[in-house]
Design goal:
Blueprint lengths: L2 E5 L5 E9 L2 E2 L3 H4 L7 E5 L9 H11 L13 H11 L1
Amino acid sequence: MKYLIRHNGLNQPNGRAHIVVGTDTACHQWSTGGMNRKRNWKISDKTKGMRVCKMCQTNYKKTLVPDDDLIPDIEWSEIELAHRVAQLL
């Protein structure tokens, strides 16, 4: 899984990690202009200890499980998400 992470002037990550899906983020903030593209964004394989955007998590879960009514509303860890994605591939 890839994450889009903003870095400050000291090259330290800040804000939230966003899940990358194709050329957009799962929360669609990148394509809709919700993220300032002039900032220092980097794509990473890890969250670097940052929390993942809640909207990205919700939207990404919907792509993995088409019928949300079949499962309870749960918080998926990064490891669980990676495992579910690996099962689909």
